[in-house]
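Q: Second attempt. The first request was missing the SMILES, so the protein and calcium ion are both included now.
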Amino acid sequence: MAVARRNVLLRAEVLEDRATPASFNTGAGPGPGAAAGAAGTTGLPGAAPLVVSGLRDGTAFLYASQVGGRYTTPAAVLRPFGAVAADVRAATADVNADGTPDTVLVTGPGTPLRVAVISGRDNATVLLAPFDPFGGDFAGGGFVAAADFDRDGRAELIVTPDDGGGARVAIFSLLPAGITRRADYLTLDPDFRGGLRVAAGNVNLDGTPDLVVTAGFGGGPRVTVLDGRRVFTTTGSVAADKLVNDFFVFDAGLRNGVYVAVGDVNGDGFGDLIFGAGPGGGPEVKVVSGQNLLILGAPAAVAAPLSDFFAGGSAADRSGVRVAAVDADGDARADVAVGLASPPRARVYLGKSFVNAGEPAASQDLNPFGGPAAITNVFVG
Ligand SMILES: [Ca+2]
Ligand SMILES: [Ca+2]
Ligand SMILES: [Ca+2]
Ligand SMILES: [Ca+2]
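A: Got both inputs this time. The predicted holo structure:
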């Protein structure tokens, strides 16, 4: 069976002439004289796109990376679910093994949960038409990550429910025969009803991406790290299937959950865990060394993070901060994108700009939302 390419629910437009300037905070990073390349849809070779979303109209803005690791103007607006009154969340990875990262999207709260994949080749072709990953039209929203666990070139889709959906993880492969469920289990705390957030990246050095899940709304800042070699076979709660024991990354008394991403920020080969405080908390970002996590254990690694700061410099913002590991400049260090609410924007820090535990002096702010839109949650992926 050919991969479904129904276009009925897709709206994508190329925005090459969209005048949405990005702003640069030039600390130790690339100077203002560094030329930003012409905005294109393919981006810098070796780098990957960034997806920014948060409008409650089903849209996501895709930025292609440009010279110097910059994202200039959106190359496309993705709207695979049509005109839904919900935000969307995204992740990027090569889902169909054509060498180009694709965009995996999931709906937020307020509409029956759907997941879709848009080809990165043209940011228009529907590789996977919207489907219900859990069945039952759960309307509480979800989160997605994408990583190639079985290393066949096709990134798996990992889906977790948002608030009200339980501690559930479902993993799918988009095979030539169609979408295939590879795993579906409860993890972290099977009794928890606040949903999970999810990320994937190779934390140890075995070349297989690992799966990191964190508690959602109402949960403590608890983290589970599942060995990527066991994500298809684990029951979700066996210690031997985890790289480390579960741990708390912020004060265990907090009840906002935590956002998470995985990327090798310091370039030592081990994927690092990038955490963002949940809604209700300040926009605290904490980067924990994957190597320290594995060698020293979680308490020591969390106590001495690679980085720990309030994004945007304000602890007064109480909307939390969503995080993503991206590859803006194609070097060996993961770059970090965060979603901030006041004012709504995404901020991107290049990995090389992390020189101490404070907020990197150099960053780039992106606001694709068209003015002071009333957005409380800015998502990055
Ligand atoms: Ca692809
Ligand atoms: Ca795969
Ligand atoms: Ca691994
Ligand atoms: Ca690392």
